[in-house]
Description:
Number of strands: 5
Structural class: alpha/beta
Distance between the termini: 43 Å
Largest sheet: 5 strands, parallel
Strand order of the largest sheet: 1-2-3-4-5
Order of helices and strands: EHEEHEHEHH
CATH class: Alpha Beta
Shape: globular
Helix content: 25-40%
Amino acid sequence: xxxxxxxxxxxxxxxxxxxxxxxxxxxxxxxxxxxxxxxxxxxxxxxxxxxxxxxxxxxxxxxxxxxxxxxxxxxxxxxxxxxxxxxxxxxxxxxxxxxxxxxxxxxxxxxxxxxxxxxxxxxxxxxxxxxxxxxxxxxxxxxxxxxxxxxxxxxxx
Length: 157
């Protein structure tokens, strides 16, 4: 199994997994952190029963298959919804967002609750693949700093 190769995190697509909770428990039983992936057309509520079991939820912000696609903005509502569910149920899962993360989308993704960002084309199709990740990280950190400052001003920390 892939866990024996040293993998720490394993994610499975909700849409491709008939027995999702069984699969997530199996992943955890091998000492790995189980995650679940949802495609752009999949509603968040299909994860209600498994969110307490997962280490991370990966929201696909493009349709799987190839890079360079345009970010699907309805993904932001899914990210926000997952963030609210996590807070209201006191869950610990991380929120990952895959693809379409670029200079013009990174702040919105982080503002919605995205924590782990996957940016392929935004990095590798740039003329300077060292500069692009730095810009993305700076934008993500600036947005996260704004969120923390708002929380502190609101007295919620």
